[in-house]
Amino acid sequence: MSISFTDPLYLWALLLIPLAWGLAALAPRALPPLRRRVSLILRTLVLASLVLALSGAQLRRSVDNLTVVFLVDVSDSMPPGARQEAAAYVRAAIEAMPAGDRAAVVVFGKDALVERTASEFRRLDPLASVPVSTRTNIADAVQLGLALLPADMQKRIVLLSDGQENEGNARSAADLVAARNVVLDVIPLGGGSTGLDAQVTSLDAPDAVPLGQRFELVVRLNATSDTTVRLRLFGDSQLLFDQAVEVPAGGTSYRIPVEGAEEGFRRYRAVIEGAGDTRPQNNEAAAFTEVTGQPRVAVVTTKPDEASALVSALEGAEMKVDVLAPNALPQSLEALRSYDSIVLVGVQAPDLPAATMALLPNYVRDLGHGLVMIGGPESFGAGQWLRTPVEEILPVDMEVRPKDQQANVALVLAVDKSGSMGRCHCDDPNNAGQQQQRRESGLPKVDIAKDAVIQATAALGSMDFVGVVAFDSAARWALETQRFPGLASLEQAIAPIDANGGTNIFAGLELAEESLAGVDAKVKHIILLTDGWSRAGDFKALAERLAEEGITLSVVAAGSGSSNDLAALAEAGGGAYYPAAAMEDVPQIFLKETIRIAGRYIIEEPFVPTLMNTSSTILTGLPLDQPIPPLLGYNGTTLKGDATQIMMTPQQDPLLATRRYGLGRTVAWTSDLSGRWAEEWLEWEGFADFASQMVAWSFPDPASGDLR
């Protein structure tokens, strides 16, 4: 027996005992001598006990009795003779163990089972436990053995195995044994055979796939040395794949595309055959997949003809497709959940009801369903999706952030607020003879001009500059040129603009020019909105100065003023001229003009996509070993940090990107799927599979648990 301390530094406190005695000797002697001595002894014992407790005093008694846990490998890699040898070894050791010792037995393959708990009984019955024998997991057996060891005896683990581990990490388990001060002995069995062993390590399949969807089965193979085997894959009883494959020492994997052709549970088997294989027991693996019912997709578009190729591809993949106008999309989550995915094709944000748009984040994030946006001239940033709930959930941001961090656009909107802008514009601005009058349902032209300002900024990014100058007889800033301040600040700045006074176009343009001259941006542009003309000012000299300073000028005519003069001014300013047939057209004209001068939301040039992630299931089975057809254009966007880029453009802009958002998934394809940009893709032999697999990727994950 011995004593030890966990914190011996506390023993220095024992020096307080003589001090306590000295203090007791000096104290007044109010007690009788006997009681004084008893009190001192008790205080000494209390102080000593406290110090010993703080120092972690421990009494150790040597234990001679031993518990041994035998770990017996009965996996397929163990020849029958080796298993018999292991059982005989354990039986002899148990019969010979000294009195008081105990023995436990664990048999293992892929899993570990307790054959016998720790016992002093000196007889071992024939091994009866039957673990899964197709794998060898030594680590699990070691951990189970540790759990069987008692705390009050010496401990030992004896491993009897051929050491051919193919699951778990035996080295880490051995480190754990050492950390617990347990002795680990290894008895190698199996004769160290060097014969060839090729095996199917695993067959991986998704838990569930929709009817008609293509997916991949992953077959993992291993071998003790380089070899060639015949790999066959069965779906139920049907042969799906039969081919000779190479299996290097150390293992490899093969991805085999299949299709969920029939509803119900499907059993897949991978089987190999190889010359010289010494252990055929591990040459097969199985997996199960549930093929669910026909998926339902909503294709939302204002131009069904542009979605026809996509719809045909989806229907060819056994999907039920509803082609809907934006206002026909359900406006409740309960109705939306009947669709596995929603695909937006050429839809502008204002086309989608606000109530439906607000539900889409919940539809994806909480219900686990999918959303796909297809590009085009009226999609992504060009479709006013910037700063919307839909942008929040997609894999891309609508704003195209310049890589050099320089502002792309500096835009000043020069808005006429003269008295005539207080009337409703109802007629053709090129017909000066028509009388202007207010319609009952009409708005003052100045209010429509404010809406146009808001629309124009829908295409501006956070690094761009914007300014609003309002002019009548004089020009004043509604919003001085600055980085885009956000929609709320912009609306607040332009709200006070009202119609009164005369018309001094020159003053408004001159103020805009002065502001833009000091801004560092790639594009500097002025959009002038007016319903008339003023002679005051040297417009020719102004146009020349604008050209020298790299500033362009476009004009939107919203009235019956001098259309010829306004058109000439736009031409001299290097911009475009827009005669608004109706005042209601002005907001869209402003947006169109902003998108045009920004030049980043629509990029029209031929290019061949660059593949970034060929392992994506969207690309399963596509003829990627052949040249990919070119595309003629795409929408500029910026990839989000948590998105996966599968294809990109030569300018490193995202072309095909995916993202997991909450329980659901979203996809962005920034080119179109019609004849304008993707004409050759529509004729490509891989188009139908590509389009259907892109949409199918967004379907609910079976793990999300959503039931329709």
Concise overview:
This protein is an alpha/beta fold and 708 residues long. It folds into five domains: 2-24 and 37-60, no CATH class; 66-192, von Willebrand factor, type A domain (Rossmann fold, 3-Layer(aba) Sandwich); 198-292, Immunoglobulins (Immunoglobulin-like, Sandwich), CATH 2.60.40; 301-400 and 604-704, Class I glutamine amidotransferase (GATase) domain (Rossmann fold, 3-Layer(aba) Sandwich), CATH 3.40.50; 407-598, 3-Layer(aba) Sandwich (Rossmann fold), CATH 3.40.50.410. It is 26% helix and 29% strand.
Main sheet characteristics: 8 strands, mixed
Radius of gyration: 40 Å
Helix-strand category: alpha/beta
Instruction: Output the CATH topology of the largest domain.
Output: Rossmann fold
Q: CATH-wise, what's the superfamily of the largest domain?
A: Class I glutamine amidotransferase (GATase) domain
**Name of the top-level CATH class of the largest domain:** Alpha Beta
Q: Quickly count the helices.
A: 17
Number of strands: 31
Shape: flat
Give the name of the CATH architecture of the largest domain: 3-Layer(aba) Sandwich
**Which parts are unreliable, with pLDDT below 50 for 5 consecutive residues or more?**
425-441
β-strand percent reads 25-35%
Strand order of the largest sheet: 17-16-18-19-31-30-29-27
Give the distance, in angstroms, between the N- and C-terminal Cα atoms: 71 Å
In round numbers, the mean pLDDT is 86
What is the count of distinct domains? 5
| Approximate helicity band | 25-40%
